[in-house]
Amino acid sequence: MRAVWRICGGLPLVVLISHQALAVDIPDIPPIQTSGALTYSFQGEKQADGRTSMQNTTTATVNPSTYIYEPWFATANGNFNYSWNTSSGESTAGSSSVTGGIALNILPQSEYATEFSATSFDRTVQRAEDSNDLSGYAIRLTSRLILPDDWHVQTRLSEDSSADSLGAGEVSHEYSLETVKRWTEDLLRVSLEHRDSLYSGGLLGTGVTNMDGMSVRHRSQPFESITTDGTSNYRITHYAQENFTEDATVMQGVSTAVWKPAEFKDITVNGAMRTFQQQSAVVRKGETTERAAQTAFGTLSTSYVFEPRLVGNLGLNAGYSSESSISTGTTSESLATTAISYGTSAGIDYSSPSEDWEGFQWSYFGGNGLDMGSNGDLGLVWSDQTRVGHSLSRSLDLWLVDGVVFSASQATGLGYNTQLGMQVPFTHAVNFTRSKRDGKGWNMWGLSASDNRSFGGTGGITYDLVNLQITQGYDPDRFSSVAAAITFQASRQVTATQDTGFVDSLSGNITYRERYVLGIENLNFSSDLSFNPPSVLASNRKRDFAGSAVSVSDDQPQGNVFGTQRWTNRLDHTVGQLRTSLIGRISHEAEGLNESLLFQISRRF
């Protein structure tokens, strides 16, 4: 008995020692979290000409994620997608797609985060007459470095490759480096980029493209009251294929400066300079064409606030542009143009505060603007315009409608232009708006009209515009709502040589929303009816439709007398991770009546 006890009594100790040994020798396996979705959809369509089509699509997506050693050391994320589609109609076709990839983020929470990702795909399209396979991969390597003294460096390397069974393929690379340095008020950003692509087969044959670029931006505040911002870009491109090559170099820069002295708060000075230079050479079938273009343009302007509502401004500008073209080969020619422009502008504007006048809020405004300059062969060109006007507004309570806000404005002026001569403009505008909620109902509407006329000079011009917007809504309860909106606009432009007549547009929609349909939780329904009829004011309407009062212009299709209408109904139901949708649409367009139905069910996990 003692022998048996010694043997059996020692078993628990042996088991305990063995378990501890296994716990030390076998590392813990990181947990793997998996998400994704399984979706099936069916879509059927019937077109106006009687053609029908059906499409079935099944998609499965799995996204696993985990970490290596510890989450701060490395995280891994995967993406796998499978899709199968069949369609039938004029022809039967089927397609399948398999995509898979993984992304590894090393030291994601550190100052040296690096991410590596690789993706592969394979797609197959099978038609009744042929089939085609497309496969490829994509590799990305991105790193971010946060160095001392607030330096940030980011690099990106990538390679993409694709090829199909018909012999067409493409391989492209991208390399970029970006460095950012920040100071208290300053910023320096330098970016370098390279792209290349080699393609073969297909409609374009065999070719290659290359691009190298550099961008520099420097924002600084050299003095307390001066801020500058400048950006420069440099890009070289090369494109070549059989019997054709093109090389181009582009340099451009934009610099701005703002001076707002603290001791003179009413004055602001702005300066800007833009430069552009481009050179290109195209070789096509032994003939070479070289082009060059240079542009430089600068402005300097200042504004001064004499009083809170009186502002004056003064500006200077100058520019230079040059273009040249040289062709050599079977036909040789040379073209060159140069233009120098300069000018000045000055103006002053005033707007008065609102005053109470017979129950109206009334204000007035005025100003003068002068522009003078020279541009190439046009010689000295100048224009001057003086304008004055006033506006008033008031809230009105009419007999049938209350809470209407009325506003109107009137303006006129006198101007002269060396090209157009004397101009006398007149502008009138009136506007009515209302927004109100009464219990469960609410409405918003607005009506505006404007008339703009200019007389004198080489010919007058008239532009009239009328705009009407009405929205009416009703919320029976917190789970349902109905709203209707309509918009109408008409405009007309008359010049010395043209009268457009009234050109109008009309559109509207009625929308109904309901949640918890029939008391079922997460069952939502929506219905939307939209319409866009043809013009109702066109002056060339000559004929009636089916003996009715509805008329159409000659340019309207016979079957589209009533314009375009669409009625869309949607039903969505969600139970946990399962979502079901049913969408039906009927549309009447120029070709006739079209119908479509979409059913989709998706299960997330």
Write a brief structural summary:
This protein is mainly beta and 605 residues long. It contains two helices and 31 strands. The protein has a 28-stranded antiparallel barrel.
How would you describe this structure to a colleague?
The protein has 605 residues and is mainly β. 4% of the residues lie in helices and 73% in strands. It has helices at 2-9, 11-25; strands spanning 33-46, 52-68, 74-88, 93-106, 114-127, 131-147, 151-164, 169-182, 187-200, 207-223, 226-241, 244-259, 267-284, 287-307, 310-328, 333-351, 355-357, 360-375, 380-396, 404-417, 421-438, 441-455, 461-477, 480-494, 503-514, 523-532, 541-544, 551-553, 564-575, 578-589, 592-604. A hairpin with a 5-residue loop joins strand 1 and strand 2 (52-68). It is extended and about 80 Å long.
- Terminal CA distance reads 59 Å
**Rg:** 36 Å
Structural class: mainly beta
Helix content bin? under 10%
General form:
extended
Please outline the helices and strands:
Blueprint: H1 2-9, H2 11-25, E1 33-46, E2 52-68, E3 74-88, E4 93-106, E5 114-127, E6 131-147, E7 151-164, E8 169-182, E9 187-200, E10 207-223, E11 226-241, E12 244-259, E13 267-284, E14 287-307, E15 310-328, E16 333-351, E17 355-357, E18 360-375, E19 380-396, E20 404-417, E21 421-438, E22 441-455, E23 461-477, E24 480-494, E25 503-514, E26 523-532, E27 541-544, E28 551-553, E29 564-575, E30 578-589, E31 592-604
Antiparallel strand pairs: 1-2, 1-31, 2-3, 3-4, 4-5, 5-6, 6-7, 7-8, 8-9, 9-10, 10-11, 11-12, 12-13, 13-14, 14-15, 15-16, 16-18, 17-18, 18-19, 19-20, 20-21, 21-22, 22-23, 23-24, 24-25, 25-26, 26-29, 27-28, 29-30, 30-31
